[in-house]
Design a protein that fits this description.
With 462 residues, the chain is an alpha/beta fold. The protein is 32% helix and 19% strand. Helix 10 packs across helix 15. Keywords: Signal.
């Protein structure tokens, strides 16, 4: 049996009983491969759901790639993107008519409603305004996280969505990742007994931190959003979701310790391309990361027919923030951040976001009275204290197989799959991350940042 057939054979529903060897074939002693199958409430579509994408960068491409592969489910009929290269690329991928291509989000809404939904994948500070306008015109929305930069704006979006009876699916994609779906299922089924506490780690990877939160679009919290929301609202949300308990209090500590001018090594220069004497030994060298290793280069919009890709990127390093020294940026995002959360029923959780790791992929430990769960998104191990039997679960998802290193465990495409059905059926109940469900973790993030700045324990009021 080949791998894909085996995955289909071993598929299980979210509400299924805890896996046992008499239900699924074993991949080894007490080890099981699984994925999340289609929701039985799905219906065959008479025609694809139509959508307009606002923001055709990395996240817009992720959701757009789903539409490009599953044309019978969703069709992208418009795009708004000021970057000409990205606008052209997106329009070509989806065969978008010229009349439905726009430079700004405002232009989209000068036209009468011409699609079922809007996908908002703009920078964080450009979520609120287009979302409110789309809701006013009656569009359903797939909204990239964070919902908006302030708690008031988040609540405004929630209120207008309710008033106009529109679906707003927040891209808390970890809720759709098979790894976390299984974790939630096991907890709900009593696999660990009463949950007592949770430890959750988000290791960003030191080069990812340098790329996105020192040099990149999210380097300044005042221009975008604090890192607890820009990066880690996924994590606050997934802790709350798997526990299925309301949060009560939160405290936080953290700061920017390393990426500062005073830590710049002797011999370093304003740019890695300026003859920096320590560039070859620096772990944050832009030349090593982007040119030598060819990592995270989508930000450079390299033309498909570029004759010398490395030379093209090398020139970009001379003019963009991505070529600047990490010790000489205008960054203010903390490079380490810890929170402690009190949930209902005396359940506690600790969350740690760490920049200085050699690896990525969330690590989670759920500790209960009758067992525990330990996992790193590639596997989830359940230990039953009563028998000391260990069972290993190995999650699988289609977009993880196609796009290695997505970091979301397959949740990206599984979210879009549910969103299509929710819009087609006008049934937000097919989603687990509607704005109603997702707003609490945003409030947790705002309160965490307030706690970090004021050194106070904050109450979470919904």
């Amino acid at each position: 049996m080949n791998r894909r057939k085996l995955i289909k054979t071993l598929s299980l529903g979210v509400g299924a009983s805890i896996i046992s060897t008499d239900v699924l074939a074993s991949l080894g002693e007490h080890s099981f491969l699984y994925q999340v199958p289609e929701n039985p409430l799905y219906k065959a579509l008479d025609k694809p759901v139509t959508a307009i994408t606002i923001g055709a960068g990395n996240r817009g491409m992720v959701y757009g790639n789903y539409a490009a592969k599953f044309k019978e489910q969703i069709k992208i009929v418009g795009v708004a993107e000021p970057n000409t290269f990205r606008n052209d690329r997106y329009a070509k991928l989806h065969n978008i008519e010229d009349k439905n291509r726009f430079n700004t989000w405002e232009e989209v809404f000068k036209r009468p409603k011409f699609a079922d939904a809007i996908i908002i994948s703009t920078p964080d500070n450009l979520h609120y305004a287009p979302c409110m306008k789309a809701l006013a015109m009656g569009y359903d929305i797939l909204l990239e996280k964070p919902i908006a930069p302030t708690e008031k704006e988040c609540r405004d979006i929630l209120a207008l969505a309710k008033k106009n009876k529109c679906i707003v699916a927040v891209c808390h994609v970890l809720r759709y990742a098979p790894y976390f779906v299984k974790m939630k299922e096991l907890i709900a089924k009593g696999a660990v007994g009463e949950v007592v506490s949770v430890q959750h780690l988000e290791p960003i990877d030191h080069t990812h931190m340098a790329h996105s939160y020192v040099r990149g679009n999210w380097h300044n919290s005042k221009e975008t959003t604090p890192i607890i929301l820009a990066k880690s609202c996924h994590d606050l949300d997934i802790i709350k979701w798997v526990l299925n308990k309301p949060s009560k209090k939160i405290s936080a500590m953290g700061d920017l310790k390393w990426f500062k001018k005073q830590n710049a090594p002797e011999g370093s220069t304003a740019r890695c391309t300026d003859g920096c004497k320590i560039e070859r030994e620096c772990p944050y060298s832009a030349i090593k990361e982007y040119v030598d290793l060819n990592k995270r280069t989508s930000v450079f919009d390299v033309p498909p027919g570029a004759k010398d890709r490395k030379a093209f990127i090398g020139e970009k390093l001379k003019t963009t923030n991505y070529g600047r020294c990490v010790y000489r940026m205008e960054n203010d995002q903390p490079d380490h951040y810890i929170t402690n959360i009190q949930f209902a029923d005396s359940v506690t959780a600790s969350f740690s976001m760490e920049a200085f790791t050699s690896y990525g992929g969330r690590r989670t430990r759920v500790m209960g009275a009758m067992g525990d769960l330990v996992g790193d998104m590639t596997e989830l191990v359940h230990t039953d204290f009563r028998t000391m039997k260990q069972t290993k679960f190995l999650p699988q998802a289609e977009d993880v197989e196609e796009y290695k290193g997505s970091g979301h465990g397959g949740g990206d495409w599984l979210l879009v799959r549910d969103f299509v059905q929710a819009v087609a059926q006008k049934n937000p109940g097919l989603l687990t991350s509607t704005i109603d469900e997702s707003i609490e973790s945003h409030v947790m993030g705002f309160m965490a940042e307030e706690s970090r700045k004021t050194n106070k324990v904050m109450e979470i009021k919904m």
